[in-house]
Write a sequence for this structure.
């Protein structure tokens, strides 16, 4: 007799296989060891762990145990069971883009004695003037018009170009305004007073010099060098003591004029004035109690003396000058910025000289 299956279709179905599914493993987001109030402190802590050089001449050694932990993490990545490559690769070279840079690449820095030019216009003018650029650092991802022009100039000169992250440029920058490009050039060498006089002789013009008595602000010095170039001055003379030198901030503020206007540094500004007087030069200094500049005849071989931002021209230098010039003003304040005062007087001299 046929035996009838009393089970329903649902009961006859095979039970579904039960899989022991493990929950997806999640990794906590890495957090710093301690709270930070700003990004600079965080970057400093991160660089200390991995041995990266943060600032010129300041190398942070890895903390105890951090180097060993990083080595184990790297070994774990190389021994991945799946055999898959970690991160994306860059074409035929097979370089792992997602991997951490090599230790040598992280520790690379600019030596302290290297002269850096920062900013797009100063770097462009350095190439145009024929200066030898040893190395060019460009921010990754920047390829606009000015950057493309700088890269073409670098290629034409055979300059080694490195593309680095913005954080790297920030760490190398001395001014904080690199605009995505930093060039390493041979250090600017100071000219001599004789070189400046020879430049005027080669042009067939009477010497026109600007002498600075204690200008301490690099931005003022750079702006004065720029003004000197545009007003037709043959050079700038600065003192050795208590005065700004040719730093990266000065180079940037001059907007490339430093490549065309020689700057001489002297030990004794008063003695330099005496020597130049023997060559037939006369000097006028800026002073609030002087003669109206429109009433002075400032032609021939002339030297314009500008004093310190706060105290003005020192007593000794003022006594060495032949005249004192005052800029007529009608405002409520009684003084001008040193670089602005230089521009007003320098262009009045240029007007009288017919330049």
């Amino acid at each position: 007799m046929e035996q009838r299956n009393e089970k329903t279709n649902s009961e006859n179905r095979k039970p579904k296989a039960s899989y022991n599914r493990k929950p997806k493993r999640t990794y906590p987001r890495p957090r710093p060891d301690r709270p930070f109030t700003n990004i600079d402190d965080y970057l400093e802590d991160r660089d200390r762990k991995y041995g990266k050089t943060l600032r010129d001449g300041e190398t942070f050694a890895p903390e105890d145990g951090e180097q060993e932990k990083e080595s184990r993490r790297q070994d774990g990545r190389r021994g991945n069971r799946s055999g898959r490559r970690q991160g994306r690769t860059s074409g035929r070279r097979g370089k792992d883009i997602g991997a951490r840079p090599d230790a040598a690449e992280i520790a690379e820095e600019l030596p302290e004695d290297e002269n850096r030019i920062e900013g797009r216009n100063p770097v462009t003018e350095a190439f145009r003037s024929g200066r030898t650029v040893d190395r060019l650092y460009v921010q990754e991802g920047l390829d606009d018009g000015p950057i493309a022009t700088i890269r073409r100039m670098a290629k034409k000169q055979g300059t080694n170009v490195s593309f680095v992250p913005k954080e790297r440029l920030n760490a190398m920058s001395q001014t904080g305004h690199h605009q995505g490009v930093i060039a390493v050039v041979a250090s600017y060498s100071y000219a001599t007073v004789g070189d400046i006089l020879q430049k005027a002789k080669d042009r067939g013009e009477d010497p026109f010099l600007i002498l600075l008595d204690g200008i301490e602000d690099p931005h003022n010095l750079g702006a004065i060098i720029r003004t000197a170039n545009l007003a037709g001055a043959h050079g700038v003379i600065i003192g050795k003591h208590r005065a700004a030198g040719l730093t990266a901030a000065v180079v940037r503020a001059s907007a490339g004029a430093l490549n065309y206007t020689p700057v001489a540094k002297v030990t004794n500004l008063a003695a330099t004035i005496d020597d130049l007087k023997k060559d037939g030069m006369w000097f006028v200094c800026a002073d609030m109690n002087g003669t109206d500049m429109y009433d002075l005849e400032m032609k021939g071989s002339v030297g314009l003396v500008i004093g310190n931002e706060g105290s003005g021209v020192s007593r000794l230098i003022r006594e060495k000058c032949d005249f004192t010039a005052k800029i007529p003003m009608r405002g409520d304040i009684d003084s001008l910025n040193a670089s602005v005062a230089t521009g007003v007087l320098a262009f009045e001299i240029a007007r009288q000289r017919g330049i």
User: Anything to note?
Assistant: The domain at 115-185 is CATH 3.30.1330.30 (60s Ribosomal Protein L30; Chain: A;). Residues 338-353 form the longest helix (16 residues).
